[in-house]
């Protein structure tokens, strides 16, 4: 399962792209159900399928942990299931993403050309819009103008 693991590690700037790639990776390896689906919770310890579930869930947790920057491991270090790990990361980055969206929207509304060459001015606006788009925020053409 780990041979084609996405190489982009989750850090404080790339949650949207990381979560998309990891979601696709886990779907492609038939393991997304350990995050959200029929296998997201362990069967009872006495159930005959518990060991198989635990082994597969451990693989998924390993994949998630291996794709997270070391500075963020503390958010998932003590979890018991892939669902918990994914939920913790999602919760942390939802707050960061919301603040970043607000910051970028404010920056876009405050952009002024002043003494910038028009090429740099347009590049600045495009960079802000690209950052917002990476967080699935639609920027209307009139906002860019």
Could you explain the architecture of this structure?
The protein has 145 residues and is mostly helical. It has one domain. Helices cover 56% and strands 0% of the residues. It is built from 5 helices and no strands. α3 runs antiparallel to α4. The model has no long low-confidence stretch (mean pLDDT 88).
Quick summary:
With 145 residues, the chain is mainly alpha-helical. It contains 5 helices and no strands. It has one domain (15-144).
**What is the helical fraction, as a range of percent?**
55-70%
Contiguous runs where pLDDT drops below 50 for at least 5 residues: none
Gyration radius from CA atoms, angstroms:
20 Å
Count of helical regions: 5
Largest sheet: none
Order of helices and strands: HHHHH
Basic shape: elongated
For this entry, what is the oligomeric state of its chains? Answer: single chain
Task: Report the span from N to C terminus.
Answer: 46 Å
Number of strands: 0
**Overall pLDDT:** 88
Estimated share of beta-strand residues: under 5%
């Amino acid at each position: 399962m780990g041979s084609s693991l996405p190489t982009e590690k989750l850090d404080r700037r790339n949650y949207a792209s990381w979560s998309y790639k990891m979601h696709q990776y886990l779907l492609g390896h038939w393991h997304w159900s350990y995050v959200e689906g029929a296998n997201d919770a362990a069967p009872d310890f006495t159930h005959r399928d518990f060991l198989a579930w635990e082994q597969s869930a451990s693989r998924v947790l390993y994949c998630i942990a291996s794709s997270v920057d070391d500075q963020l491991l503390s958010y998932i270090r003590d979890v018991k299931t892939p669902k918990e790990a994914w939920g913790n990361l999602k919760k942390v980055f939802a707050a960061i993403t919301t603040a970043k969206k607000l910051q970028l929207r404010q920056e876009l509304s405050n952009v002024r050309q002043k003494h910038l060459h028009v090429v740099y001015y347009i590049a600045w606006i495009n960079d802000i819009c690209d950052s917002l788009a990476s967080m699935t925020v639609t920027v209307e053409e009139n906002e860019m103008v």
